[in-house]
Write a structure and sequence with these properties.
Blueprint: E1 2-6, H1 11-16, H2 18-27, E2 32-38, H3 43-46, E3 54-57, H4 59-64, H5 69-82, E4 89-92, H6 97-104, E5 110-113, E6 129-131, H7 139-151, E7 178-182, H8 194-206, E8 210-213, H9 218-230, E9 235-236, H10 242-250, E10 254-257, H11 261-268, E11 273-277, E12 293-297, H12 305-316
Parallel strand pairs: 1-2, 1-4, 2-3, 4-5, 5-6, 7-8, 7-10, 8-9, 10-11, 11-12
Length: 317
């Protein structure tokens, strides 16, 4: 059986879809599973041994560079890749019109959420097979139940993200056990106060832990540098790709992160994780896994340093 999964973005959503692959390989071990994903997040499905071909798209970039020759070359390459083989089923777990339109390019029957379940109900009109999944379930559970309904099995056990990476051995990492601080997120209202990060970092340093602060863009790197300068022995990490960052997380004793996809990656790697929410409700999209993890805060809430440290010490123990 050949299956194409369409889950293009964002980083957290792509990570939330990994247990679908584990479920499929458990119940359909001979299945060949391909995945259509935004090229900037393609490193995530590559971490799962159950994924075969990665079919990249770059919708966000293509929209901004529509009149460039390279854009149309990449679109042509996508069309060729997605039509290169026939699939027994194409499953869109994104539930958006744009993802459904991408999925329709593939050769095979298309399945997805019913109108009462899809994030964009109009998307369901593009599917040949439609399945209702309760909207008040966690995103990981919804993905799994959709796939289970489409392929006729039950997904009732704990989610298995199916990924494991070796710990990184970069020479800039602290010599002592370390905790990763994931301080960057897409919205300023999701940030945790820098004073809180400084306090938590100093208190962990006194307990014998180093601190690693990854960052992406210039604003995030500036923040990481400020924090590293204020925390004894802390390291502002150099620019890292997702696969390299996964290795840094895999070697950590724990991770503390705001509402960002990388916090979900830590949980997927079974790293003890504290997730901090200040502007969103973690109920349906908070971290979820089988290892130690905690969701703290919520809308208009700011978790205290004492609360974070208390939970973190339980995870470190």
């Amino acid at each position: 059986m050949r299956i194409l999964i369409v889950k293009t973005s964002s980083l957290g959503d792509v990570i939330h879809n990994l247990p679908v692959i584990s479920d499929l390989k458990k119940h359909l071990p001979q299945a060949e599973i391909d995945w259509c994903v935004e090229d900037s997040f393609a490193a995530i499905p590559r971490l799962h041994p159950g994924v075969g071909q990665i079919i990249p798209v770059a919708i966000r970039r293509w929209r901004k560079q529509l009149f460039k020759a390279q854009t149309w070359q990449e679109i042509s390459a996508f069309r060729a890749a997605v039509q290169a083989k026939s699939y027994d089923l194409v499953l869109d777990t994104q539930g958006l019109v744009k993802s459904a339109l991408l999925a329709r390019r593939a050769r095979g029957p298309l399945a997805g959420y019913a109108a009462d379940s899809a994030r964009e109900p109009l998307a369901s009109s593009l599917y040949a097979r439609r399945y209702s999944v309760a909207r008040d379930l966690h995103a990981v559970v919804r993905n799994r139940q959709l796939a289970a309904a489409a392929f006729g099995y039950a997904a009732e056990d704990a989610p298995d993200y199916g990924i494991a990476v070796p710990a990184a051995a970069f020479d800039w990492l602290p010599a002592k056990p370390y905790v990763v601080f994931l301080t960057a997120t897409s919205r300023d209202d999701k940030l945790w106060p820098e004073s809180h990060w400084l306090d938590l970092g100093k208190r962990l340093w006194y307990q014998g832990f180093g601190i690693v602060l990854p960052a992406g863009n210039a604003v995030e790197r500036a923040r990481a540098t400020r924090l590293a300068e204020g925390i004894p022995g802390a390291v502002a990490a150099p620019p890292l790709g997702i696969a390299e960052l996964a290795g840094v997380l895999a070697g950590a004793q724990a991770a503390v992160g705001v509402d960002t996809g990388l916090t979900h990656l830590a949980v997927a790697l079974k790293v003890p994780t504290i997730a901090l929410y200040t502007a969103t409700d973690p109920g349906l999209t908070g971290v979820l896994g089988v290892g130690f993890h905690r969701n703290l805060g919520g809308k208009a809430q700011t978790p205290s340093v004492d609360a974070v440290l208390g939970e973190l010490q339980a995870g470190l123990a």
